[in-house]
Write a structure and sequence with these properties.
Length: about 180
């Protein structure tokens, strides 16, 4: 049986935000599965360690969003062998720490739209997936991928990635199971 997960921020852990608001959209556009390494210009980000009086714990993956996972070197060391086959590390410009954003380069037509529950725009494009179902043949053997049918796809990971994360004792992410094969 194969399970697919979506990373989510663990409560109480730090955030990562672009210094300039316009760069949030730039990250959404660029972390889309196309190889960016040859032309990548590091985006300036900052770590948010306190907000509205709440102090956040250090994270091995400071949260930017499921569409663009950010990692510290310790997470890359633990996940690297699994991650690197399915994407690229792109450096970020952060005065507080050494950070990279991971760009999954496996973008697949793997959503089983008939078995999923989706909301659509009027033109038929998918606005939101409420319940995921995947076409097993499209995702078999993929440890990290994005979906081609979504304008801004979350990063999906396999149980192998989740197991490596847990075995390494990494902190800051949780993994929500969104689908399991029968």
């Amino acid at each position: 049986m194969t399970s697919i997960y979506m990373p989510v921020r663990a409560d109480g852990f730090e955030l990562c935000r672009p210094v300039y608001h316009r760069d949030a959209e730039s990250i959404e556009r660029q972390i889309n599965g196309k190889n960016r390494k040859p032309t990548w210009q590091p985006i300036m980000v900052r770590l948010i360690q306190e907000e509205a009086g709440e102090r956040f714990l250090p994270s091995d993956s400071p949260w930017l969003g499921a569409h663009a996972l950010v990692f510290r070197p310790v997470a890359l060391d633990a996940l690297g062998p699994t991650l690197y086959r399915f994407g690229e590390r792109l450096p970020l410009a952060c005065a507080q720490d050494d950070l990279v954003v991971f760009n999954p380069t496996r973008v697949v037509d793997g959503l089983d739209e008939n078995a999923s529950v989706v909301q659509r725009y009027r033109d038929g494009r998918i606005l939101e997936v409420i319940k995921y179902a995947f076409r097993t043949r499209a995702i078999i053997g993929l440890d990290v991928f994005k979906l081609s049918c979504l304008q801004v796809s979350p990063t999906f990971v396999s149980d192998r990635v989740v197991d490596r994360w847990k075995r390494a004792g990494l902190k800051g992410l949780e993994f929500q199971e969104v689908w399991a094969s029968a």
